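A student in our group prepared the protein record below, which I am reviewing. This is what I was given:
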Amino acid sequence: MLRSFILPLLALLLGFNAPAALAADPPPDVLARTTTQEVITILKQDKELQRGNLAKVHELVEAKILPNFDFNRMTQLVLGRHWPRASAKQKQELVTEFRSLLVRTYSSSLTAYTDQTIEFKPLAMKPDDTDVTVRSEIRQPGGQPIPINYSFYKTAFGWKVYDVTIDGVSLVTNYRSSFASTIRQSGIDGLIKTLATQSARGTATPAAGNGS
């Protein structure tokens, strides 16, 4: 299982949706750094968010985070060798359910916010780069800094996140292990059913994989 899902994933919540005032296609590190303060301000000022209003939490996740992720690519990477075996309908359902899974995970993280801060490392990016890693650390009072690395790639719609590495463990790799175990036991339809059931119950994360 990924170490301490909740606090590390706050970095996701605080980093990825550029204000309209920025250029249409800002560099990924600028996108992350500029929005961090904006979202922290929202968290500190909005009493409904602080009280854990799930409807408002989900609204913030949908508006500020999800547009900056490529869920199709993420789901394909998570499924790995099982992806080509899935039908077009199964692929669509898998993307939908994986997106829902991350909404629940991020929402749980958002309600856990207190006084964490994020420090972004300098990014050395060449003009023709199309795949980069934005490095950061999440700092919390009384705790050790937790490194968070974001894998971005450039698309026709701007820079998109396709993986996150938390304290040395890839989110994609972790879910790949968990999902593969479910597929071995009950097939692709079984995985879809499991994710849909978790969604109906409001479960934030799937069963632990073999990550640490």
